[in-house]
Amino acid sequence: MKYCITKDQAGRFLLSRQRLTGERRYEGTGGILEYIYSVGCIQFDPVDVCGKNAEILLHSRVQGFEKAMLNELLYTNRQLIECFDKNLCIVPVRDWLYLRPSAEPGDAKAAYDQRAKQAVEELRPLICRQIEQHGCVSAREIQTDKRIQWYWGNNTSYARAALETMYFSGELIIHHRQGNIKSYAFAKDHIPAMYYNAPPPFDSAQQRAQWQVLRRIGAVGMLYNRAGGGFLGTKMCAADRRKAFDILLEQNRIIQVDIDGIDQPVYICGADQPVLYRVLSDQTGQPRAEFIAPLDNLL
User: Fold this and answer.
1) In this structure, is the dihedral angle defined by the CA atoms of residues 257, 231, 214 and 32, taken in order, positive or negative?
2) Whole-number Å distance between alpha carbons of 248 and 45
3) What is the pLDDT of residues 50-81, one digit of tens each?
4) 299 vs 281: CA distance, rounded Å
5) Cα dihedral angle (44, 47, 52, 53), rounded to 10 degrees?
6) pTM for this structure?
7) What φ, ψ does residue 251 adopt, rounded to 5°?
């Protein structure tokens, strides 16, 4: 099955899929969760000029959005969590099962090279003791004069390197933020046991590739079968990605869409056929004006 549409229809499909046309359908904290469940993840970025990326993104879709609502879901109720997906993202806590670094050997963002291993081994007892006593700990609360060449720069404290390495390996989560200062806690204390103790959900790299392809198409709404920003962070080789597309097409979990004037086809999730039907019948609702975040899923 495949569809042939115009560029205008493709644009209206993306706007409709991203809930940027018609009346706002989301409201309050429940609306935040509903939107993030529908796209899987939204990208986190700490830069705050007129609001952080996630805040601007949600403001454009959720009626009555306030920053405190997102903080509550992340750091109090913990229905959402900061986790690496497409870079650092905000995802439903249930997705820990699929995204935790331990789900696939060698998947940690910062592998235990000699520098990181030394910092962790030296500071782990202090980090664990601080968390056990206070519930969480930040790099500022760990006294050390040692510095390390790190992926963020050449003069990073041992404390930051140790905490980030333990975070990238799935041992810690971000407990909360105060400004841009991150405090960490044990993942086992805050991730529900049904997710934390579950066995890895994929039997093979190909199964994981299929999940990632479906997730990334759903996050944007429409993607090409080619390397690019849409698949950033998936670590799929081209052959695995192409095979995943073939299998998902055969299962009707994704659908090919040809756009007039564009050589390569794009793909949408099978579950989004009703959105495409509304576009083709010109029932996507009235346009509206919104601020679009710099790392918005639409882009």
Assistant:
1) negative
2) 31
3) 999 999 999 999 999 999 999 999 999 999 99
4) 25
5) -50
6) 0.91
7) -85, 0
